[in-house]
Amino acid sequence: MLVLNDPPARAIYAGLDTTTCVCILRRAALGLGRRPGSEKLATLQTTRLLERDFGTDPDAALAALLLLGKKGPGAGAKAAAEVLFRFKTKGTTSGSEKWQKRQEAAGEVAAALNALDAAFAAQVADELAKKMK
């Protein structure tokens, strides 16, 4: 995935609805790359070309950087915690392999967020702990 280190990308991410934020976080944290159908492909190109060009490596740092866009006045930490909560819990069966991958990825995103902004990461962790009860 592309590294988006500019404030406009974070501002755009912060303005998206929660479901879209979760989708973007999921694709970045799990290394799923771009959404299928978002690329213009010639008929001879294959999925391997997509993997080569767009990557399939998980990028927790990118996910944390975008999540940092939720930081701001008001309910920034609460909104970021909601995105992480939905990422960790929705659409998976507790204990399944998919669930386990999401738990690990969420931990990596939280660690990357802590490296970027420890105070905001602590606020998000507190809000997430309240939601997980």
Task: Give structural attributes.
single chain; 7 helices; about 65% helix; globular
Radius of gyration: 15 Å
Task: List segments where confidence is low: pLDDT < 50 over at least 5 consecutive residues.
Answer: none
What is the count of helical runs?
Answer: 7
Helix content: 55-70%
**Element-level helix/strand string:** HHHHHHH
Major beta-sheet overview: none
Shape descriptor reads globular
Structural domain count: 1
What structural category do the secondary elements indicate? mainly alpha
Please tally the β strands and state the result. 0
* Cα-to-Cα separation, first versus last residue: 34 Å
Describe the overall structure.
This protein is an all-alpha fold and 133 residues long. The protein is built from seven helices and no strands. Helix 2 (18-29) crosses helix 5 and helix 5 packs across helix 7 (118-132). The longest helix has 20 residues, at 97-116. It is globular and about 35 Å long.
